[in-house]
Description:
Layout: E1 11-14, H1 24-51, H2 58-75, H3 78-86, E2 91-93, H4 94-127, H5 132-135, H6 138-164, E3 172-173, H7 180-185, H8 192-225, H9 230-258, H10 267-291, H11 294-310
Parallel strand pairs: 1-3
Antiparallel strand pairs: 1-2
Helix pairs in contact: 1-2, 1-3, 1-10, 1-11, 2-4, 2-10, 4-6, 4-8, 4-9, 6-8, 8-9, 9-10
Amino acid sequence: MAGFNTSFGKRFLLIGFSDWPQLEIFFFVFILIFYSLTIFGNTTIIILSQLDLRLHTPMYFFLSHLSFLDLCFTTSTVPQLLINLYGLDRTISYGGCVAQLYIYLALGSTECVLLVVMAIDRYAAVCRPLHYTTIMHPCLCQTMAMSSWVGGFINSLVQTGLVMAMPLCGHRLNHFFCEMPVFLKLACEDTEGTEAKMFVARVIILVFPAALILGSYVQIVRAVLRIKSMAGRRKAFGTCGSHLLVVFLFYGSAIYTYLQPIHSYTESKGKFVALFYTIITPILNPLIYTLRNKDVKGALKKILMRGRDSG
């Protein structure tokens, strides 16, 4: 078929999970529940961070950014998936597909950088506690947060531009959204040069941040081991361990998807891995980072008591 990378009237067919029709109802209910919980959990974090003065700290400032990011990240793909699973419409226009690809990559790239920023914040809190408020000045926090967003959107612009420059053959995308590896499989020409350029961009946005996060947590662990109080150690390790769990889940699935050669990428496995970092990780973030936190629980109880008293 002829390429149609500039023809916005063309439509793609998203195969989704139609290869397993007996599982589509299960997936629909499962994903709808998780999506609803993701919206509720992350929205709660954002509201609490704004309303409670005790949460006006750098850590919760970055967490509110992460929650808003996760809301946007999961919303960029899940509604389309639910429509696909319900069988209402399994197609998407070329323009809509490119827009989804750009937004999805931009938000995912932003999260990669934001997780580094949050690791730096934890490093300053644990390793430089006496200078923490001086180091993590509000102006610096705002600059770091904005840099995460700008860096993520620039990275996405580069990768999406490389895809749009390729002629595409075919209209069947064996996925539930417009994922980059699936796009590359539709290319009418050799993608080796494009893949090499994308690999460099992905190393910058995935491997470097992951290395920085691991390096910061190595320093945090060393500092925690010097704490004499067992209760203090336990609290620090509990907090850092939960943060690292989020990092491993997010970066592990992203590295599996984006750093393997395109010829070894399989759509069936890719769909389930994508489910993991588009559905599971966004709901884990509020659970792991904050809803287990005493400060957040206290803020939630305070707001609920205030609402009950005013009622």
